[in-house]
Amino acid sequence: GAGVSQTPSNKVTEKGKYVELRCDPISGHTALYWYRQSLGQGPEFLIYFQGTGAADDSGLPNDRFFAVRPEGSVSTLKIQRTERGDSAVYLCASSLGGQGTYNEQFFGPGTRLTVL
Amino acid sequence: GQNIDQPTEMTATEGAIVQINCTYQTSGFNGLFWYQQHAGEAPTFLSYNVLDGLEEKGRFSSFLSRSKGYSYLLLKELQMKDSASYLCAVTDSNYQLIWGAGTKLIIKP
C-alpha cells in the first residue's frame, strides 16, 4: 500500500481481556517497529523486526506482550490479560533498511487502546 | 542512562521564527531525527542530521553539534498549520531510536 496501515484505529476492552493489534507496513520495507505513546510523551520503543525475526524486543514491558511477523510483512502485537496501564496509542512504523543503516521510519496512524 | 531533553511547550506568532532546542546524552550517536506530530496523528519525518552543521529544507532547518550533544529545529515564516508537537530522536550505538517527549508548539495569529 501507499503507507503504513494499522487496524483497528480504536479498541476498547475490559481489564483482563486479550487484544491483537495489526500493522501492515509499506511494501518492500524490511524493518518494522512497534511503539506505544502516552499523551504528552514521545514514542516508547517496544520491538523491532528485521524480516520475520524479532531483532530487538528489549522494549516489551513484560511477558504479557508478544509480537509476530510470520511472513516478513504484516505484524501483529498481542497483549494478554490487559491492564488499565496498557491504555495508550500503539504506533507501528516501517523503514526500508534496518538498524545499522539510515532508517527514516514511516509511521502508521496508530491504534488507540483503552482498557476499562 | 540515555536522555533526550527538549522544552515541553513553546508559543510563537504567525509569520515569525521559532527555534526548538534538543540536547541529548546517549550511548553512542548515529544520527538525529526531527519529526512533526499533529494532535491525534502519527509522527512524520522532517529532517535528519548525522554530521555537524545546518541542513536547510524550505521553511525548516535543523542544526547539529555532536561535540555539544545539541540540535535545534528552526521554523521560519510560521503558519497556523505548524501548530504541532516536534519530536527529537537520536539513533544510539545499537541503532535504536531514542525519543524525546516532544515540544508542543502553539502558533498565535
Task: Provide structural commentary.
The complex is a heterodimer of chains A (116) and B (109). Chain A starts with a strand and ends with a strand. The mean pLDDT of chain A is 92. Chain A is mainly beta and 116 residues long. In chain A, strands 2, 4, 5, 6, 9, 10 and 11 form a seven-stranded mixed sheet that branches. A four-stranded antiparallel sheet of chain A has the order 1-3-8-7, with no helix packed on it. Chain B has 109 residues and is mostly beta strands. Chain B is built from no helices and eleven strands. In chain B, the strands form two sheets. In chain B, strands 2, 4, 5, 9, 10 and 11 form a six-stranded mixed sheet that branches. Chain B has a five-stranded antiparallel sheet with strand order 1-3-8-7-6, with no helix packed on it. In chain B, strand 6 and strand 7 form a beta hairpin. At the A-B interface, strand 5 and strand 10 of A face strand 5, strand 9 and strand 10 of B.
Keywords:
heterodimer, A: 116 residues, mainly beta, 7-stranded mixed sheet, 4-stranded antiparallel sheet, 11 strands, 0% helix, B: 109 residues, 6-stranded mixed sheet, 5-stranded antiparallel sheet, globular
Number of DSSP helical runs of chain A = 0
What is the subunit organization of this protein? heterodimer
Largest sheet of chain A: 7 strands, mixed
Low-confidence stretches of chain B: none
Determine the strand fraction of chain A and express it as a percent band. Answer: over 45%
Report the β-strand fraction of chain B as a percent range. over 45%
Q: First CA to last CA of chain A: what distance?
A: 33 Å
Helical residue percent of chain B?
under 10%
| Largest β sheet strand count, sense and barrel closure of chain B | 6 strands, mixed
- Total count of strands of chain B: 11
Q: Which word captures the global form of chain A?
A: globular
Mean pLDDT of chain A: 92
Structural class of chain B: mainly beta
Rough outline of chain B: globular
Helix-strand topology string of chain B: EEEEEEEEEEE
